């Protein structure tokens, strides 16, 4: 095995195709349903929101889909991203495991999100769209799309969850710098926002509400605006596979191959990005590889949710998707890992979990921040709060490998840096964070309200 | 010429030696003088503050000095850093110039500072030093040294300029995360600090005061603590030459060579890091290459200062250095580019400027922030306020090339990202920043007070 610490690729090694896992899945995901009729929807139902090329990708059964040259050209601004061997972390853990991480924090917006923001902006531009709407929680996605829209001359409206809008002025400023208009959600610009504000003028907002607002703005724009989503959907997950595809080449250079692949899961795009290209070998060749999605214990849809149809937003405007969910009205605690506070998981990851092809783990925030600080002290990168969930699981697996004396190779995706999340670390150091075990009632608060279709076993 | 956008190097291409420009200078720098006796000082005078290996490097006439394997091992955490062709910026400027930049913001602390922090911590560790003191202004240097000390098991005391301590809590937190103790300077822990506080209990502090405090703490520690400086000194500048040395290899890969090399100048280490390895060709082969140091118009020591002996700190504890200075009591405006608010320039850069081997340029902050936003919009990296000074000069040169129809190749060092400086951009967007032309009296406020030795022509 090579002893390289930093494994890099040349610009011409950026993948030329995305990997579409749908082609390899034996159990295909169930179709999305119309929110009104509850009947399976077709491409025409999605056309008001998305450009046709993305709708095609959403349902494509092609194994590989070509990355347009113009998209690869923008990817070159930060891709290929580096992969590192975490030798210092290994030493501190005194583990026989070899730990590698792919680092997506080198992107302009500081996370993996631009990998899909760029093609989404590109396909919209190609189809003559000049305006996009989107939502953002902590701001990672909003800033990624603002960057991408700036590249392709598209105006962007961002609905930013109010509590983040107030707590993270610099994320907002970053979006402004790239030319986006940012609104504190709920707003009075939409029916959905207005009705929330009528009930609670001080609503802190939520990702589900912000999605409702962004979708409504596009759907009622008379065709002048389309909508863009930063996770959950099949095409979004597919765009992220550049991460895993690059890492396979880097693993080859390091003369290694992972036994375990780990990433945090909010909607699923980060996890899919690193793991799907490895699952390809599991699905087609039966390769023995564990892929673990890590969620916060305060929003445990994978480990404690239900597999059924549910809405993607709070108001109920989106198609119904077959997924693991806590219910679209579930309101998780205001943990700092804002990107992981989403009630459902992507259809593809949900189906794979249901079929036993991937695993899930839920971890409390104190363990995660402790892992994040250990990582900063050993590997010197301060991880985003979301990313600390992956690191906490890596440490669990590395400790297990030590107990078992097993020479496991672990790969995880360090999806972003925490430079805009320092308040979270401040709270952690100040002892302001606590772990809270969800009660039965809290856990079922959203599920009990659901009237959406169940899925038969 | 290659059309690569991102030019990278493998880990084994990290330089094995630093370049020591002293070896190639025809006019050697004048010696430092003892602050009391005003006589040239020897190594033994510096021994209370620095480990012997760094003192040797400070006066070495060797052209190349080997980088210890342990230092290269830590460098591997982020080095080699990428070099980019700024194709988008070129397009917006519609210039025939080819613009390249080396990006040092990928380091753990987000700037070029760890390049010298790591060897300084290493040599101290090797000589049995367990405690270091230092100062920091905006926090770039303090966080770099905190990272490096953590790597080599050294305790660190940081004296942070009070106004930054209050305005940049996250920089402080980053230092704390890496285990450093950070104090708001002036403190009551030193005689220097106490006397400043007696005069003005609300003193916002300055880099000169913070240096006085850090030096005093080391000098009065009875040998238990040494002191570390992040710029100005010869050994510090030499450590930074890894930047330029890597960029030469990268330029070769791109089949290019710069006509103009540009970097901002605070103390001089950033400028030296990128330019000295190119000056090697100018000094030894007469190669025609322009190296331009860019300073803020509010602290114009290179363009409007005096070349004479002066102290490095406000109180007058350090040796007297022959340099371009505005006087050690000069207090520049509180511009956001905190790293450029220093009254003097390094001895080596000062001598080179005096000898006409490098150039200097002073630019007001509004032009710099405008350049920074243009850079963020085209190249997608949000530069540190210090770095925007280099970019503003790049734009000037690219526009000149356009006027002249000259196909110049320009290289600059993007020394750091602005993720911890968003308040500066907020002020810029809010229209709160103004340019102020220094009056004759303001400009001479520090120089008029100087009683330090002049240098004969």
Name of the CATH class of the largest domain in chain A: Alpha Beta
Oligomer classification: homodimer
CATH architecture of the largest domain in chain A: 3-Layer(aba) Sandwich
Largest interface, counted by CB within 8 Å of the partner chain's CB: A-B, 39 and 39 residues
Helix content of chain A: 40-55%
Q: Structural class of the helix and strand makeup of chain A? A: alpha/beta
N- to C-terminal separation of chain A? 45 Å
Q: Total helix count of chain A?
A: 19
The low-confidence parts of chain A are none
Biggest sheet of chain A: strands, sense, closure?
7 strands, mixed
Q: How would you describe the shape of chain A?
A: globular
Proportion of β residues of chain A? Answer: 15-25%
CATH topology of the largest domain in chain A: Rossmann fold
Structural Rg of chain A: 20 Å
Characterise the protein shown here.
- The first copy, chain A, is of the alpha/beta class.
- Chain A has two domains: 6-14 and 77-110 and 240-434, Rossmann fold, CATH 3.40.50; 49-66 and 113-234, Rossmann fold (3-Layer(aba) Sandwich).
- Helices cover 40% and strands 16% of the residues of chain A.
- Chain A is built from 19 helices and 15 strands.
- Chain A has helices at residues 43-46, 52-59, 69-75, 87-93, 114-126, 140-151, 162-167, 169-177, 191-199, 207-219, 234-239, 241-253, 269-285, 301-304, 347-354, 365-379, 385-404, 422-429, 440-444, and strands at 6-7, 17-19, 64-66, 83-85, 98-103, 131-136, 155-161, 181-185, 226-227, 260-264, 290-296, 306-311, 320-325, 359-363, 409-414.
- A seven-stranded mixed sheet of chain A has the order 1-4-5-15-10-11-14, sandwiched between helices. A four-stranded parallel sheet of chain A has the order 8-7-6-9, with helices on both faces. A two-stranded antiparallel ribbon of chain A has the order 2-3.
- In chain A, helix 13 links the parallel strand 10 (260-264) and strand 11 (290-296).
- Chain A is globular, with a radius of gyration of 20 Å.
- The A-B interface holds A 4-6, 8, 10-11, 73, 76-78, 84, 106, 108, 110, 147, 150, 169-170, 173-174, 176-179, 373, 376-377, 379-382, 417, 419-420, 422-423, 425-426, 429 and B 4-6, 8, 10-11, 73, 76-78, 84, 106, 108, 110, 147, 150, 169-170, 173-174, 176-179, 373, 376-377, 379-382, 417, 419-420, 422-423, 425-426, 429.
